[in-house]
């Protein structure tokens, strides 16, 4: 017998808000990489400007969770969903900040010619985009399998990042005049690597919701 | 110090109706154990078996074993059992014609204590343990019925403690109290478990979560799940426990 109809509706609202925020964050990251590929400062600026909306979404999710804790005294799975919901919102907000940092790097690179074709960064961006999708789908479908898939994906991102940084250092050593640009590109790689870490945090939150067990996907 | 209780395959009936269907559990000494479950699940019957009140109901009987450490409660004199296993009820039930002092002293007098100084000392000690002394010290010879509901309940706790039990059973001790009195009783449970083993039946899940070290969930006369309170309220193992504590049925 369904006895907590309004509470269940509020939990569904929480899920929808997290999905909407996740989609917006994915879009911000995609746009920041698109801006980098075209060295398009205008697109980059739109990512910076869009961050306010993402922050607002985080606050709305926090307010909803706090209201549910204060008024519904959630326990067991309900409690884990709400506490993890707060953490997921925080991770998504940080990913949004990483997208902004990438966009700001693009704005600083305006007018320059890239020292090498972009290969690793778009590859990393593709994987972290998939990771965010997997993390959100794991949350929606309560799927341990999808959540656990994030660990090997994150390993791949870390691997590409290390390789890319080594390569950029070599370029900078051989040609110190491009050191500033290689550093910017390395930072962009670092931001993507951090986005991957936040996605694994979400996966860990999903595993906690489903099983109550703590895990480490990173 | 409190003593542990071992319950083995406890069955209880009212007439032909089997109310407890074979409960086995260990109640730890000096810890508070909450018994939760929907109405009719057998939780009150369970604690009434622990001090042999159940058998006083017409047509009631029980089977199985309840041991207070190495003593079998069902081979002891029931009067002795109720001295070592005290009980506080849902509704405060002070003796209406007696003073605060006499409400506590009467159990001691029945236990053979006649010395006035000893009686007075024990009454004071009990009222202090029940966190009531400071509020009534200057009027202990006034009628107990003049106390507030919360004070009357703490008086009943003092009365149960006066005879120095090992175990204190509490059947919905705060359900008739206002929130402030409820919190006082809950704080008291926290202090009392240093000296007693506490078993508390409650409908209030937040209360169980606040006061109990361990929680047992009863349903239809069966023990469904029993474990550390934190585990029960964050990650219960059985779906029926989850459904009950999250309010999905009951």
Automatic annotation (TrEMBL), chain A:
Where does the record say this protein resides? Cytoplasm
InterPro entries, per database record: PhoU (IPR028366), PhoU-like_sf (IPR038078), PhoU_dom (IPR026022)
Q: Where is the signal peptide?
A: none
Q: Which GO terms describe its cellular component?
A: cytoplasm
Q: PhoU domain location, by residue?
A: 18-106, 121-204
Name the GO terms of the biological process aspect: intracellular phosphate ion homeostasis; negative regulation of phosphate metabolic process; phosphate ion transport
Q: Does the keyword Cell membrane apply?
A: no
The record ties this protein, via Pfam families, to:
PhoU (PF01895)
Q: Which Gene3D superfamilies match?
A: Phosphate transport system protein phou homolog 2, domain 2 (1.20.58.220)
Q: Kindly state which keywords UniProt assigns to this record, in alphabetical order.
A: Cytoplasm, Phosphate transport, Transport
The record ties this protein, via NCBIfam families, to: phoU_full
Tell me, how does this one assemble? Answer: Homodimer.
**Family of this protein:** Belongs to the PhoU family.
Function statement: Plays a role in the regulation of phosphate uptake.
UniProt-recorded name of the protein: Phosphate-specific transport system accessory protein PhoU
Organism of provenance? Alicyclobacillus ferrooxydans
Lineage, uppermost ranks: Bacteria, Bacillati, Bacillota, Bacilli, Bacillales
TrEMBL record, chain B:
Q: Where is the ABC transporter domain?
A: 5-245
> Which Pfam families does the record associate with it?
ABC_tran
Q: Which domain of life is it from?
A: Bacteria
- Tell me a GO cellular component: membrane
Any one Gene Ontology BP term: phosphate ion transmembrane transport
The record's annotation in SUPFAM superfamilies points to: P-loop containing nucleoside triphosphate hydrolases
Record key words, sorted: ATP-binding, Nucleotide-binding, Transport
One MF annotation (Gene Ontology) recorded for this entry: ATP binding
Q: What PANTHER family has UniProt attached to this entry?
A: ABC TRANSPORTER I FAMILY MEMBER 17
Q: What is this protein called?
A: ABC transporter domain-containing protein
Species: Alicyclobacillus ferrooxydans
């Amino acid at each position: 017998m369904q006895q907590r109809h309004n509470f269940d509706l509020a939990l569904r609202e929480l899920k929808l808000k997290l999905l909407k925020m996740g989609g917006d964050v994915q879009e911000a990251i995609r746009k920041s990489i698109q801006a980098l590929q075209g060295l398009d400062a205008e697109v980059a600026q739109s990512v910076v400007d869009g961050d306010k909306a993402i922050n607002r979404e985080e606050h709305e999710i926090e307010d909803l969770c706090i209201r549910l804790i204060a008024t519904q005294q959630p326990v067991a799975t309900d409690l884990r969903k709400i506490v993890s919901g707060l953490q997921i919102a925080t991770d998504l907000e940080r990913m949004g900040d990483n997208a902004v940092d990438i966009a700001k790097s693009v704005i600083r690179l305006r007018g320059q010619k890239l020292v090498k074709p972009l290969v690793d960064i778009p590859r990393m961006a593709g994987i972290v985009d998939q990771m965010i999708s997997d993390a959100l789908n794991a949350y929606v479908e309560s799927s341990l399998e999808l959540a656990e898939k994030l660990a090997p994906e994150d390993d791949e991102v870390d691997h590409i990042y290390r390789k890319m940084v080594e390569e950029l250092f070599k370029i900078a050593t051989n040609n110190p005049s491009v050191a500033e640009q290689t550093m910017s590109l390395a930072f962009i790689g670092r931001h993507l690597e951090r986005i991957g870490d936040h996605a694994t945090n979400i996966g860990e939150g999903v595993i906690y919701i489903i099983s109550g067990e703590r895990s480490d996907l990173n | 110090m409190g003593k542990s209780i071992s319950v083995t395959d406890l069955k209880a009936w009212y007439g032909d109706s089997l109310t407890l269907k074979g409960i086995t559990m260990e109640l730890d000494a000096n810890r508070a154990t909450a018994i939760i479950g929907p109405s009719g699940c057998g939780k009150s019957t369970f604690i009434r078996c622990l001090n042999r009140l159940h058998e006083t109901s017409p047509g009631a009987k029980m089977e199985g074993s309840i041991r207070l450490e190495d003593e079998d409660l069902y081979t002891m004199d029931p009067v002795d059992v109720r001295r070592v296993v005290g009980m506080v009820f849902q509704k405060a039930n002070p003796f209406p014609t007696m003073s605060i002092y006499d409400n506590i002293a009467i159990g001691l007098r029945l236990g053979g204590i006649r010395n006035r100084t000893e009686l007075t000392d024990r009454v004071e000690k009990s009222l202090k343990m029940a966190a009531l002394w400071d509020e009534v010290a200057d009027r202990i010879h006034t009628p107990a019925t003049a106390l507030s509901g919360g004070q009357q309940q703490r008086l009943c706790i003092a009365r149960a403690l006066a005879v120095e039990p090992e175990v204190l059973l509490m059947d919905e001790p705060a359900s008739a109290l206002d929130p402030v009195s409820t919190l006082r009783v809950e704080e008291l449970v926290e202090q009392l478990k240093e000296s007693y083993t506490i078993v508390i039946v409650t409908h209030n899940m937040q209360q169980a979560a606040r006061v109990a070290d361990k929680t047992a969930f009863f349903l239809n006369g069966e023990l469904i799940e029993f474990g550390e309170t934190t585990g029960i309220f964050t990650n219960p193992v059985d779906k029926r426990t989850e459904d009950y504590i999250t309010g999905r049925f009951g």
